[in-house]
Design a protein that fits this description.
Length: 451
């Protein structure tokens, strides 16, 4: 019962991230705000995730994962209730910020599994849980398509998030076993907490708002420079501090650095395929000469759902593959599948079946890769560092997804059909090429980790 319960708990992270994306234009209309303003419902969510995930992972290592997991779910539930309680953008942004703490559920779930299961069962469980989270993004899109129609109150989808948070909290309360933490004080490294929060927030803010501010504008460049400088000072502080919040070796050691870089690259590839394909199939062919004019519902059920089913199946197999062949080899194979999927959709996207097949292939890549990444870390980190190490890995994926969102948005805005603002077919092909290249580099990264 523990594995299915944790799969559901961590899946809500991805659902909460993606279910609101199709609604953003309608949210802006219903609240009477600009598209730039409504973008903060995504930015606030990612900022909270970036700041809190590694810190909550470390707290779980020290205080026990069950206690921290239940506290996070309580905060997420409060945030979900805020999203439906008032029809107001500031309250909605605040609720989405609280929901961002759900990103820490996955690394803490890894810590729970490691403490509760033996090594023989652990790899299979990690594969299933990781793959389930990877398909949660598509599940969120499908849920939005099923629940929302043009003109409906956008809060119908947020009520679903409330229900999911309640169920997840109940499951965690009754199923997740208690386990002791390391007992080390979690409040000693104050400047380490502040430096990590400020540095990561500045970099993510540049990625999230660069398209609005301008990529070479003073605010964007300022955030990048400030974030890099703060993180450099933070890293030096952590190396000298006796009890650091994040041990530098968990970032840069040869045994774990490839897993973090691969997670960043897989995050890029995953979000490229999710965004680019979802937007491609919705383009009206009579206007652009490509695309299928699909609605949000058709996109969800026809183009995404079959791939989600395949992805869930692949997730169940990924743990068995990791146990038999090792995590780095499985990641290499998954990335090779990803390269093939992106190459296929780049050249063949004139028929619906071609896109459906490509989505299925790419979901195999993402699900298996997500199952291999935590296994790569568990092989090389001590049990008392499981939460924070996987928290860092989760943040690497988040930064990859944020960069992918910015890249796809920039491509679709700049490579357009002459005389219109409609993206050219070449823009989507370029996005698929970026996904393929990042999957290829992730595979080489996994291979390098074996040297």
């Amino acid at each position: 019962m523990l594995i299915p319960a944790l799969c559901f708990v961590v899946m809500i992270t991805a659902v909460m991230q993606t279910a609101v994306v199709p609604l953003m234009p309608d949210i802006a209309t219903q609240l009477g705000v600009s598209p730039n303003a409504v973008g903060w419902i995504v930015t606030a969510n990612l900022l909270t995730a970036t700041v809190c995930t590694p810190l909550l992972g470390r707290l779980a290592d020290r205080r026990g994962p069950r206690r921290v997991l239940l506290c996070i779910l309580g905060v997420v539930l409060v945030g979900s209730l805020l999203c439906v309680a008032w029809d107001s953008l500031p309250v909605l942004v605040a609720g989405r910020a609280l929901q961002g703490m759900s990103f820490a559920l996955f690394p803490i779930g890894v810590a729970v599994l490691r403490s509760a299961l033996g090594p023989h069962r652990l790899t299979a469980a990690l594969g299933i849980m990781s793959g389930t989270m990877s398909v949660g993004g598509g599940a969120g899109m499908i849920a939005a398509g099923l629940l929302y129609r043009d003109g409906d109150d956008y809060r119908r989808v947020f009520w679903l998030l409330v229900v999911l948070a309640v169920i997840a909290t109940a499951l965690a309360w009754f199923v997740v076993p208690d386990s002791p933490g390391s007992g080390t004080s979690s409040g000693a490294d104050f400047w380490g907490v502040v430096g990590l929060a400020v540095g990561l927030s500045a970099l993510l803010l540049a990625l999230a708002q660069g398209g609005t501010w301008g990529w070479v504008s003073a605010p964007t460049i300022g955030c990048v420079v400030a974030g890099a400088l703060v993180l450099a000072v933070w890293y030096r502080h952590e190396r000298r501090f006796d009890a650091p919040m994040v041990t530098p070796a968990l970032l840069t050691a040869r045994a774990v650095a490839p897993a973090h870089l691969a997670a960043f690259l897989v995050g890029i590839a995953m979000f490229v395929q999710f965004l680019a394909i979802a937007m491609f199939v919705q383009v009206a062919p009579e206007q652009a000469g490509y695309g299928f004019g699909a609605s949000v519902l058709e996109t969800s059920l026809l183009y995404l759902l079959p791939g989600q089913v395949v992805g869930i199946t692949a997730a169940g197999v990924s743990g068995l593959l990791v146990r038999k062949f090792s995590a780095d080899r499985v990641l290499m194979a998954a990335c090779a599948v990803g390269v093939c999927g992106f190459a296929f959709v780049g050249f063949a996207h004139d028929r619906p079946w071609q896109v459906i097949v490509a989505v299925a292939v790419l979901n195999i890549f993402v699900s298996v890769a997500y199952g291999a990444l935590p296994a790569m870390l568990v092989e090389h980190v001590a049990p008392h560092d499981t939460g924070v190490a996987n928290g860092i890995n989760a943040i690497a994926r988040t930064f990859g997804s944020s960069l992918a969102s910015a890249l796809v948005g920039m491509l679709l805005a700049t490579i357009t059909i002459a005389g219109t603002d409609i993206p050219s077919e070449r823009a989507f092909v370029a996005a698929f090429a970026i996904g393929g290249v990042t999957a290829l580099i992730a595979g080489f990264t996994a291979a390098a980790s074996r040297a």
